[in-house]
Please model this.
Amino acid sequence: MILAMLLGAAQAAAPQRLLDCTQIGQAAMTSREEGLPEPGRATDVQLLATHSLCGGWAIIDMWRSGYGPSATWRARRKVMDRFGRLTVSTTEAVDCPVLMAVLTNLNDVPISPSVIPRRNKADRFPPPITLDGTWFTLHIPSSEQSDRSRANVTISGNDGPVAHWAEASMKQLEPCWRPAA
Model:
């Protein structure tokens, strides 16, 4: 929320102008580190969508809040446009059952870390990577490890299974978002 206050003050004092790519990138990185709006565990899933040509970004944090039978899944979306306008909205699984479907679909995303592209059926390398469009970064802290050896999984790309899951998930969640209090 500190980011929102700073940007709000800057917007009130100055006429609308485009932020440069560095400013947009710094705002996204600062916002990624912002804590969750209520007590709970660390973010279970964080999705960052960075739009090409400095077009802004969106961050969706999804986490389980509480323990035992009273635990519920919650989500927060922060969106910044190229003018620095920040919008924060939230939802939870009780009000948005599709949140559970989005998280369940993540189980089916095939992840194969490799620096060497796979050959296609015609025994040719795939076409070159496209550098425009939305770049997605999926970050999942591991809950399987002890705190001392905690591992994280971070996957990025603008095409492929993770990007397809991200695009579909963002579209499915769109009707669920409500302004944050």
